[in-house]
From TrEMBL:
This is Protein HEADING DATE 3A-like isoform X2. It comes from Durio zibethinus (Durian). InterPro entries: PEBP (IPR008914), PEBP-like_sf (IPR036610), PEBP_euk (IPR035810), Phosphatidylethanolamine-bd_CS (IPR001858). Gene3D superfamilies: PEBP-like (3.90.280.10). CDD domains: PEBP_euk. It holds the Pfam family PBP. Signal peptide: none annotated. The gene is LOC111293817. Belongs to the phosphatidylethanolamine-binding protein family.
Length: 209
């Protein structure tokens, strides 16, 4: 009898221990997933919130200025982004088209972004598996020239329902990416990237707002 009681107690201890370990593991995994979301560069950099709502990346997007590839949150100098970037779009079907929008949500200054968002570039009808030069440039590229503070420059990729006619806005300032997507029925973004940029020492000139 004593032997059986010991066995039952041992089994009970093992079962309870395993259950506790499993619950702790579940909690650890949940915490890890939460931390992963919290560490998303688009969230950390407040691109999600200031420019976009939360979305799930579903298409590869590669942005390259000359030989410098953009990684979210990296810093580039104005002299490195004078010319428009190469924007490579993933996908599998050339009959699928995409739109790229590039904006500055920190214009004219991060502390007083009353021109948010400033539109730097707008290209539509980019076929999947190609890059932006194969699309239709609706608003020509204007290179970043921040004058005060560190600015975020955000490139957003949308999947179109098909080829479409998009009209250039009357001005670049106070553009709204969310409103633009709603107007042209683009839905949620499928990818996004951003970099930081600030005025270089000794650089002059003012942005033409």
């Amino acid at each position: 009898m004593l032997h059986n009681i010991k066995v039952d107690i041992t089994r009970s201890y093992i079962n309870n221990s395993c259950a506790t370990c499993f619950q702790q593991a579940q909690g650890h995994n949940s915490c890890s997933l939460s931390m992963t979301r919290d560490r998303d560069p688009l969230v950390v950099g407040r691109v999600i919130g200031d420019v976009l709502d939360s979305f799930t990346t579903s298409v590869p997007l590669r942005v390259t200025f000359a030989t410098k590839e953009v990684s979210n949150g990296c810093e580039l100098k104005p002299s490195q982004v004078v010319n428009q970037p190469r924007v490579d779009v993933g996908g599998t079907d050339l009959r699928t088209f995409y739109t790229v929008v590039m904006v500055d949500p920190d214009a004219p200054s991060p502390s007083d972004p009353n021109l948010r968002e400033y539109l730097h570039w707008l290209v539509t009808d980019i076929p999947a598996t190609t890059e932006a030069s194969f699309g239709h440039e609706v608003v020509c590229y204007e290179s970043p020239r921040p004058t005060v503070g560190i600015h975020r420059f955000v490139l957003v990729l949308f999947r179109q329902l098909g080829r479409q006619t998009v009209y250039a806005p009357g001005w670049r300032q106070n553009f709204n990416t969310r409103d633009f997507a709603e107007l042209y029925n683009l839905g949620s973004p499928v990818a996004a990237a951003y970099f930081n940029c600030q005025r270089e020492s000794g650089s002059g000139g003012r942005r033409r707002y």
